[in-house]
Structure formats: structure tokens, C-alpha cells
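Retry 2 of 3 after timeout on previous attempt. Resubmitting C-alpha cells to design endpoint.
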């Protein structure tokens, strides 16, 4: 029965290791996909505030690296778990258990904070803070990445500014003449190359003159009038829920692996104890006087001659045979 329970727990651990490997490959693939989507990474520059806004790269760039790193750790740990379950090595299983525990605790802490208090990580679209950043940094030669992110948002969501196009009237881009005397950026205009994925890098308005006109009755058909806040909020919520869902699946798989590892260690410990007890019982059994040694003798014929027929005789029977032979 102990052997069957050990095999059952080993099968459960093997299934969990397979799920762990699949989860690791999924995270690695997700991280690579995030890193390969440059537009998505660039747009995430507008989702951070506070200290995170000063990072060298946008937030999703670090998320992609983190996903790939965690996936690599889970894949390596899954391989270690397969090896440990086949070897029935208690120390390998303990190392496997500790790695899963550390990764699980770290992920739970990050996901709990991201779920309950995303503001602590600076993950939010703050219209007021973003408006100030736009008026201060748009068009600045030292903020090329931020400028490209604003242009991408305006072409992607067909919008202008954060709340409205009037924000550019008091921006440094307009006051310092960084936009070649334009009233609004060209990305705020309705574009001929709007379907081009890289159109934000070189916006081509359908009518630049009317788009830049100050009278509303002239420019309303050639520029976008709504702000980008609603589009950014919706984009942020969609990706926020996707990443939290992926994290939740990874945490559940790691939790199942943790439970199966505990079960496997318990089974191995019980199996080893039963083997030791069986060995003690065998060594404690009393020895019988009958030996297993078998000797042979030749039967005498009636003429007192010995025949070639041989018979097996134990030591307990030998003494009685000698007495009969004397008689």
C-alpha cells in the first residue's frame, strides 16, 4: 500500500511539474511578445507617475523582462522537480520546495500590491499629472521618448492632448516655438496615413492648413477634438487585467506544485520509515535450530552395499538415522 501511495504522489508531482514547465514557457513567450511590441512599450510611458516616470525605459519594458525571467526560473525549477521526483532524493525535493516557496511569496507580494494599491507602484493614468508632463516635456529634445509616446496616443486613439487640445496653448512647445509655429502637433490632425503602424513618426495631415486654423468652424473637420484620457484609461484597464490574470494563473500553478511537493516529501519520509521498521523486524526474528544446509548420503542395499542413489537429509534427521543404523 505504501508503494502505491508513493507512486500516486509521484504521479501527482509529475503532473504539477508539467504544468509548471508549461507555465514557465508561457511566461517566457509572453515576455518576449511584450518586448517585441515597441509601440505598446512606448505607450506605457504615459501610464506611470512619480519616481517610475523617470526610469530610463517605459514600464512595460521592465514587465517584459520580469515575465521572461520568472518564466526561466519556473522552467528550470520544473526540470529540477522532474529530476528530484525520479531520484526520490529528499534533499533535491527540499531545494525544489524552497525555490518554489521564494518565487511564490515574491509573486504574491507583487500581485497583491498591484491589485490592491497600484498607485503605490505609480501604475495609473493621472490626467492632471499627465497634462503637466505634456506641457512641460512635449517637444523637448531631451524627452524624445515622451514626445513619441504622446504622438502615438494621439494617432492611435484619434485624440488631441490629455483632456483637450487647448493644453498646447500654454505648453512650452507652443510658447518656445518648438513646433515650427504650429497651433497643435500634426498628430492631432486627421491623417492620410492613419492606418500606418508607424504613422505617428511622420504624421501626414489630410489638410494641414485647415487643421491648424484657430477658428473652430474651419478646423473641426480636420483635427481631433477629444482628449486622450478616456482612450488611455481603457487601454490601461485592459492590459492591467490581462497581466493580473496571467499572474494569478502562475500563482495557482505554483501553489499546486508546492502542495504536491509537500505530499511527495511526506510519502518519501513514511516510505523510508516503513523500510527501516521492516528491516528491524527481520533482524529481530528468532533463529530456528533447523539449518537449511542439505547433505547427501547413500542408501545401503540389503547386502550391506552402498548404492549410487543419493538422498537429502537435514541435521535434525541425521541423529535419528544413526540410531536406526546402529540397531
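Retry 2 succeeded. Sequence:
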Amino acid at each position: 500500500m505504501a508503494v502505491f501511495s508513493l507512486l500516486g504522489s509521484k504521479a501527482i508531482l509529475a503532473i504539477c511539474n508539467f504544468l509548471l514547465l508549461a507555465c514557465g514557457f508561457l511566461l517566457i513567450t509572453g515576455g518576449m511578445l511584450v518586448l517585441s511590441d515597441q509601440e505598446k512599450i512606448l505607450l506605457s510611458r504615459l501610464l506611470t507617475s512619480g519616481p517610475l516616470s523617470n526610469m530610463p525605459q517605459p514600464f512595460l519594458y521592465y514587465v517584459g523582462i520580469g515575465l521572461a525571467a520568472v518564466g526561466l526560473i519556473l522552467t528550470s525549477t520544473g526540470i529540477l522537480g522532474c529530476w528530484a521526483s525520479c531520484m526520490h532524493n529528499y534533499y533535491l525535493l527540499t531545494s525544489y520546495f524552497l525555490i518554489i516557496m521564494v518565487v511564490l511569496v515574491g509573486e504574491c507580494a507583487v500581485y497583491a500590491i498591484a491589485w490592491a494599491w497600484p498607485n503605490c507602484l505609480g501604475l495609473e493614468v493621472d490626467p492632471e499629472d499627465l497634462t503637466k508632463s505634456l506641457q512641460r516635456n512635449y517637444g523637448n529634445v531631451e524627452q524624445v521618448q515622451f514626445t513619441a509616446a504622446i504622438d502615438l496616443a494621439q494617432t492611435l486613439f484619434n485624440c488631441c492632448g490629455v483632456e483637450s487640445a487647448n493644453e498646447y496653448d500654454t505648453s512650452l512647445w507652443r510658447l518656445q516655438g518648438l513646433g515650427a509655429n504650429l497651433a497643435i502637433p500634426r498628430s492631432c490632425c486627421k491623417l492620410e496615413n492613419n492606418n500606418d503602424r508607424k504613422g505617428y513618426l511622420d504624421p501626414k495631415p489630410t489638410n494641414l492648413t485647415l487643421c491648424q486654423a484657430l477658428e473652430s468652424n474651419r478646423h473641426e473637420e480636420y483635427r481631433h477634438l477629444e482628449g486622450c484620457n478616456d482612450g488611455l484609461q481603457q487601454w490601461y484597464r485592459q492590459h492591467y487585467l490581462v497581466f493580473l490574470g496571467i499572474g494569478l494563473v502562475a500563482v495557482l500553478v505554483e501553489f499546486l506544485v508546492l502542495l504536491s511537493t509537500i505530499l511527495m516529501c511526506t510519502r518519501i519520509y513514511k516510505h523510508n520509515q516503513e523500510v527501516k521498521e521492516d528491516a528491524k523486524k527481520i533482524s529481530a526474528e528468532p533463529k530456528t535450530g533447523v539449518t537449511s544446509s542439505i547433505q547427501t548420503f547413500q542408501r545401503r542395499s540389503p547386502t550391506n552395499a552402498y548404492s549410487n542413489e543419493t538422498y537429502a537429509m537435514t541435521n535434525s534427521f541425521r541423529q535419528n538415522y544413526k540410531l536406526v543404523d546402529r540397531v
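Attempt log closed. Residues 23 and 250 are 6 Å apart (CA to CA).
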